[in-house]
Structure prediction request, 136 residues.
Amino acid sequence: MVRSNKTARPPVRVFSFYDDGFRGGPRDQDTYHNHRWANVKLWLARQGYPDKNDEGVLQRLHDSEINANILFQPDGSFVVKLGDDWNGYTAEAKLSDWRDVLKWLREQAMIQFPASVFAGQEAGKSREEVLRERRS
Prediction:
């Protein structure tokens, strides 16, 4: 019998809603809820998915009211989407590296939501500057 060095872990989905924080759980179950990515990261580590630093990307997407959905696959890959189950998704990809997930989310958010606070912050503006520009 051949044993794998990897510990079996269930697929886990984490998604964010701008007005409700981050939610997560096995597949389509909603068993975890928190408003800060730092706490979600700790929960993911307990599920067998350690070292998921978001470099601020996921928290800033959430704070900019851009919904994202990440399915952590047991094989280490990720299915990543912008949008949500109710309003639909504007972009989707399957990626094998966490850094690529963050890069893809950053790029797609800039493309799909160019007038967002997130896009403005990526261009070096403060949240306040972006909101001021929107009002004028």
User: Anything to note?
Assistant: The chain is about 35% helix and 25% strand. The helical segments are 37-46, 57-63, 98-112, 117-122, 127-135.
